[in-house]
UniProtKB/TrEMBL annotation:
Primary location group: mitochondrion
Binding locations of ATP: 11, 59, 87, 93, 104, 114
Organism from which the protein derives: Hucho hucho
UniProt protein name: Nucleoside diphosphate kinase, mitochondrial
Xref: InterPro entries: NDK-like_dom (IPR034907), NDK-like_dom_sf (IPR036850), Nucleoside_diP_kinase (IPR001564)
Amino acid sequence: MATNRTFTMIKPDAVQNGHIGNILAMITNGGFKIVSLKLTQLTVADAQAFYAVHAARPFYGELVEFMSRGPIVAAILEKDNAVEDFRTLIGATNPAEAAEGTIRKAYATSIGENAVHGSDSDENAAIEVFLHSISYTECYNPKRFDRQ
Ligand code: RTP
Ligand code: MG
């Protein structure tokens, strides 16, 4: 197990339903260190690009509309075995199949609106962390703190 990073988003349903604080608490209590955090909103183009791997799936249009419809919280998380352990913490895609104690069991409302995203491989985590860092330079650039 290596200490490494994964990428998460608290999706628009969970933000809208007031679960940001409880989900961040579950993440922290799960042993993850939050190393970047941003309240933001995806454009349609951002959501299309982020989930491009699913472009041919029947739920793609609905997924893009959902992910861009309201604020999200995007975060980079650090932990030993981060990607796999975070997938365990969030639970199955379909909340009806999610284990007790998982974030999706607690906060997802349907297979489509399932509260959180987690990177599914180290390779995709690296891509998603990189995209996050270049998109949100203002909260990632240490020089920002020199200006105060
Ligand atoms: P995510 O990428 O958001 O962490 O979710 P995941 O790996 O558990 O699931 P994935 O297969 O990558 O699907 C991406 C997201 O698409 C929506 N979805 N809707 N209506 C449906 O049948 C359906 N299937 C998937 C969910 O929001 C899912 O998380
Ligand atoms: Mg996925």
